[in-house]
Write a structure and sequence with these properties.
The complex is a heterodimer of chains A (275) and B (251). Chain A is mainly α and 275 residues long. Chain A contains 13 helices and no strands. Chain A starts with a helix and ends with a helix. Chain B is an alpha/beta fold and 251 residues long. The A-B interface holds A 37, 39, 151-156, 158-159, 161-173, 213, 216-222 and B 59-61, 80-81, 83-85, 87, 91-93, 95-99, 102-103, 106-107, 109-111, 113-116, 118, 140, 142, 158, 162.
Chain lengths: 275, 251
């Protein structure tokens, strides 16, 4: 550990990686909690994968890939929200289509851009050590938006994720709130992609919150514990990958997956002991 | 049209020529009746008779193919904040990390509440509702940790939290034993002094002494006042109506 700490001062990239991991953990704990209780990991997966389309376009037309990712994430959140409201039965088909079409657009545009292969891999599997100062500023901005919206509309988001019918009876704008929740998920995905990449993002979004849900009895408690767990998984993953010299994103996900297995086993044991 | 002067006498729910189908399969046809303030009306009919569909039309979750529904003189979508609803099935996740007290508080929410917490008065009121339902000791439990009867009481407390003018209960006692059932009806009878109550049931054996009106549904509707048939048991009324409706629908 001291080796890692001593490297911190000498390598700016490691510093950036740790700041990015902390910000990702906050976003991930908050949003992941709502993704898990509303059971919309598939929708989140659709948004995450569609993002590659935006990254591909950004490379081809030479603008910031993060901006491209952000644009496609928001666009797919709107499309999925609209489809869910208008044509409930076709929701899964549309999400699958969006999932694959986004990736196809990304692959084709990256292919047409010279020197694409390295960047494609780092977007698919993440490359936390490539996080720049500008990226950190954008991540901070997105975090402020996510935290602000959740604090203001905390009870409203609980109402619509708990029981939509009752929320409608209270006169809440359920459809608008649902689309807003998808937009928050989209913002979180853009943040998390920096750390673990498009393909692994769903695990980081859902595992810490799922573990937290096993041991907490309120949404606020679940968010708090999920943030702590995300911090342990991302920072621990960075440390392990640094010493073992293996890819960071994959290490973080394996660490989270292992954590989930342990948490479920402990819960199972404690329940059977009680009985 | 809905002036203050006739607020007391105007029906709280007006259903006129309402027809509704699912995938071209008619569920309700030409339903017309009014519900008056402080009525305690039961919607009775066999499974698939359209009872829950009619409830969802009144709540504004569905829209009629033809005809109009007015709740408190307005479109149900606008008036539904004045309705309390205890659904037949619990559509929400029983393991959702929300305890009974918080569940009740959630129904005091309105679109303008922009703080993450509830006020002191609201918390106090939620406790009072749980006391009234005799489940105060379960305030910190999750729904998954309650029995069927306790869940119904908690859902009733939640429906009352928004101070509704009309309370709609869809099969409130389907999974509850008889003594608890009687308790709940006694409680509803008391609430009926201030609140109009609609009760959906497939069986009228217990409710006859509590209700004042009965709506027999089987795609069509027939309304009766309970006093209409002093010498006849409600069972017979129900039986005859269903036969009549079956005949009428060529079933």
């Amino acid at each position: 550990m001291s080796a890692l700490l001593s490297q911190l001062s000498s390598y700016a990239f490691l510093n950036n990686a740790i700041i990015a991991a902390v910000m990702a953990s906050i976003a991930c704990g908050i949003t992941g909690t709502f993704v898990v209780v509303k059971r919309i990991t598939f929708i989140s997966g659709g948004i995450a994968h569609a993002v590659l389309g935006g990254v591909g376009l950004a490379y081809y037309f030479n603008f910031s890939p993060m901006l491209g990712a952000f644009g496609f994430a928001i666009l797919s959140a709107f499309i999925i929200g609209w489809v869910k409201i208008k044509a409930r039965n076709h929701e899964n088909t549309v999400i699958s289509a969006l999932w694959a079409i986004g990736m196809a657009i990304g692959v084709i545009f990256m292919y047409m851009t010279p020197g694409y292969s390295v960047d494609l891999l780092s977007y698919l599997f993440g490359n936390i050590l490539m996080v720049t100062k500008t990226n950190l500023l954008i991540l901070a901005g997105l975090n402020v938006v996510i935290i602000g919206l959740i604090v203001l509309l905390y009870r409203q988001f609980i109402a619509i994720t708990y029981d939509e019918e009752q929320a409608r009876l209270r006169g809440l704008p359920v459809n608008s709130l649902y689309i807003l929740l998808l937009i928050i998920i989209a913002c979180t995905i853009v943040v998390l992609i920096q750390i673990v990449g498009i393909i692994l993002v769903i695990a980081l979004l859902s595992l810490p919150a799922a573990i937290s849900g096993l041991y907490t009895r309120s949404i606020a408690g679940m968010i708090f514990l999920a943030i702590i767990l995300s911090l342990i998984f991302t920072l621990g993953g960075i440390a392990i990958s640094f010493f073992a010299n293996i890819p960071t994103g994959a290490t973080i996900i394996l660490f989270s997956g292992f954590g989930y297995l342990v948490a479920v086993s402990i819960k199972r044991c404690s329940i059977s002991n009680r009985q | 049209m809905y002036s203050i002067k006739n607020k007391r006498t105007q029906p709280v729910i007006q259903i006129k020529d309402v027809t509704f189908s699912f995938d071209k399969q008619p569920v309700l046809e030409n339903i017309t009746f009014d519900i008056q303030r402080n009525d305690f009306i039961a919607f009775i009919g066999p499974n698939g008779a359209g009872k829950t569909t009619l409830v969802k039309l009144i709540l504004g979750f569905l829209e009629p193919d033809r005809g109009t529904i007015k709740v408190l003189g307005k479109n149900p979508k606008i008036a539904r904040t004045h309705l309390g609803y205890v659904p037949q099935y619990t559509f929400f996740d029983l393991d959702y990390p929300l305890n009974v007290l918080d569940t009740v508080k959630m129904n005091m929410l309105h679109s303008g509440s922009l703080m993450p917490w509830f006020g002191k008065d609201e918390v106090k009121k939620a406790h009072e509702l749980l006391e009234m339902m005799e489940i105060e000791s379960l305030a910190q439990r999750k729904f998954s940790e309650l029995s069927g009867g306790q869940r119904q009481r908690a859902l009733l407390a939640r429906a009352l939290a928004s101070e509704p003018e009309i309370l709609i209960l869809d099969e409130p006692t389907a999974s509850i034993d008889i003594t608890i059932e009687k308790d709940i009806y006694e409680l509803l009878k008391r609430l009926n002094d201030n609140i109009t109550i609609i009760l959906v049931s497939h069986d009228i054996s217990f409710i006859s002494s509590y209700i004042n009106k009965i709506c027999c549904l089987n795609r069509f509707a027939a309304i009766h006042s309970v006093d209409e048939f002093p010498r006849e048991s409600l069972f017979d009324v129900y039986d005859r109506n269903i036969k009549y409706l079956k005949h009428h629908c060529h079933l």
